[in-house]
Amino acid sequence: MAKKNLVVVGNGMVGHKFLQKSIEIGATQDWNLITFCEEPRLAYDRVNLSGYFSGQSAADLSLVEPGFYDQHGVKVYLGDKATKIDRAAKKVISAQGAEVEFDRLVIATGSYPFVPPIAGKDTEGTFVYRTIEDLEAMSAYAEQAKVGVVVGGGLLGLECANALKNMGLTTHVVEFAPRLMPLQVDELGGNILKDQIQALGVTVHTSKSTTEIVSVDGRVQKMVFADGSELFTDMIVFSAGIRPRDEIAKECGLTVGDRGGIVINEQCQTSDPHVYAIGECALHEGKIYGLVAPGYTMATIAAEQICGDGNNTFGGADMSTKLKLMGVDVASFGDAFGQTPGAKVVGITDSIKGTYKKLVVDATGKHLLGGMLVGDASTYGNLLQISQNQIVLPPNPEDLILPAKSGASTSLGVDSFPDSAQICSCNNVTKGDICAAIQADNITDIGTLKKCTTAGTGCGGCVPLVTDLLKLEMKKAGLEVKNNLCEHFDHSRQELYSLVRLEKIMTFTDLLAKHGKGQGCEICKPAIGSILASAWNEQILNPAHVTLQDTNDAFLANIQKDGTYSVIPRIPGGEVTPVALIALGEVARDFGLYTKITGGQRIDLLGARVDQLPAIWQRLIAAGFESGHAYGKALRTVKSCVGSTWCRFGVQDSTTLAIVVEERYRGLRAPHKLKSAVSGCTRECAEAQSKDFGIIATEQGWNLYVCGNGGMKPQHAQLLASDLDQETLIKYIDRFLMFYIQTANRLERTATWLNKLEGGMDYLKAVVIDDCLGIADRLEAEMAHQVATYQCEWQNTLADPQKLARFNHFVNSPEPDPSLLRVEERGQARPPYAHEREVLMAIQNR
Amino acid sequence: MVSASVESQTVNQWITVCQLEQILLNSGVCALVVDKQIAVFRTAAGIYAIDNYDPFSKAYVLSRGLVGDRNGIPKVASPIYKQNFNLQTGECFDDPTVQLSVYPVRVADGQVQVGIA
Description:
The complex is a heterodimer of chains A (846) and B (117). Chain A has 27 helices and 38 strands. Chain A is of the alpha/beta class and 846 residues long.
């Protein structure tokens, strides 16, 4: 039997989900899958669109695995919009003239942003926020803008405001309703939310109705409001709600609602039983669902209706949501506004902490009907389950939202949920599904669990619950939840660090004898070598430590692909005298080293043989250089701009501070490399916000940012403290670094460490600034010891014949490694590529 | 002190490469034996000799790898891409199709000697 055609109009999140589900249940046996995608790229994660501004690329946002459609024979009309449905001929016609016959058709056209009919709404400088193209247009325009306004204070509007703020604009949000997020929170919650958002530097205007957008030279200049007030701005983004894209359905005579939306029944069928509609374009019992989870549910149900058993139907969806808007939690679930007759309310407002928590309970006080949380939604997952599964409330329901008092935990944990409890609402995964997967496959890590069950792979809001479940199941199975360093130590890095400190253990051999087994390996040796250095700061090439070091540390240089090393002397703050620079050039010339400027304002000399390193360093030290620790998991560089010394914008002397900071922390060994920078003004030329700790000058002092990094997974640093004097600044950095060194996992950079740190930035502030653990004095003393015991590792090595004896290639010959070859490129020597090596070897052997 | 796996190889000549104390316990050195680069390792359990050539990085670096054990079997990790090699057999733990040569090695009168045919 010939296959039938199943055509999907629209390849957004929901359209893709439909195809994915269909394929999963075996649709490709009987159906040709065909889809139209109007945008130039396949389905991507619109929910996390603002991630595009924090460094995620279009590819990161993509929901379609490369090759997925090809692999399953899905025909995609990319960049081609379906414009017409001919229901009589059962054909879809596209903008580019394609005509595709269908046996079943699914409309997943989504929605478009609603732009209120304001005079001047189409002026240059006005935008909407829906697609990657919209974002690109916004960010291009923002480069020459200083002020940006978002019209609409709902979920998307606030996301968008965050994007504008990240682009460096002075940002305003204008909301027509008397509060932000009017659909999710009530007045009290709205006030708290407004305070929180304003504290982040976004100005919020509520109860404002825009009447006109005034332009100058054809570009946006200001907005005029109904109350006569005005707001000057360079650009405006409309995010005032969505409207279903139902034109294609309307034109072919399908029933649509009075205010838009393609009417569907519980099978997701439109008024034509061969045509289905899902997602934001669909109208079910008078409701448009503007969230992704109900869209996904419809996609699943429609796929099952068309290609599967069709047992499930759509009975409306829960609008419970948990969001993080500019770092502020907002959640609402169930009957959040207490509309059920007899409903009672328990609420706690804390305008000091900036939190609002409200529970709606039924007339008997036994069951939770709904609630809302602003500022802290950590209990959302639990509360949602309690309400959805009708779990009987404790005698004092307020205990569920009161801050946990030490010793008295009243949370109804994940253990109390029934197996039918839906943990992941994006992908409809129940507690039973998750537990079954854990047991069947003996899963012990969250990554595998997510992959196996898809739980937590949608919005990610349920990940804490999924993690709790995993831990619980592992405990039940008698498995210990462990974070062991390797097979030689049944301890985590943090535990080993504490043991070393508490028991004053000075060597690996001693630690292995007391707390480990076997001989050690390339995992535990360098990690413990680093712990010992962080704790006691003995020279890493001392006989007791040298065999623990990775080759970079063992030879105080960075190994390259052919076994030679690169040499990077310290150039504090990136400041170098012409005389020193010449000396560096002479060394490079005399040893034939390939020379390149690094990203950290230093100079890299590459291609040094192991036997050349001491002679190179003899020369460098004579010229006044010292070891740069580019080879170590240690402080690398403190980058700086020229600051107030030269720059007409500089407000502080950033170069001098960078040198002070670099010289204070040089040689400090840590779980991973540490990078820093100091900028002399808010223009941030030193890129301090991409560093493990970065410092930015203000008129009043210094702002300290921590836990940023570039590299594979870039992350912006976050503000730890503002307007510090230099002494306080150094004190906070001391505490921060030592706290990181004490608690991080092996090879965990500060950004990842912070992401995993329970309590996050607030907790880190409490430790570093408020000293909530009472350890600040100790951390400072530990750092003082590091600073006082610093020695240049190369100077120390050159003075010790025993250490120098290792710097040769052969133990029994002074010859260098005969396999090393060089070719010249752009006037410098480099190692040959494989094909060049063959030729060179042939010449050599002739 | 001779490692077990190489006893069967015929040795016609023992070449002294260094004094035992020139190899720090739990580390390695590279010896030039005739024209060959051989990595010699010293652990508490004995002396081992394998190729210095790392077939993954194609560089002569294994003597500079970290020495340790996996479930009691002595091993070295390549300093370039960290593949682990069995010091007794030369087998790669991470890719059993990769096999390094193992050489006869002994300590006589405090001298480390590599045997050649």
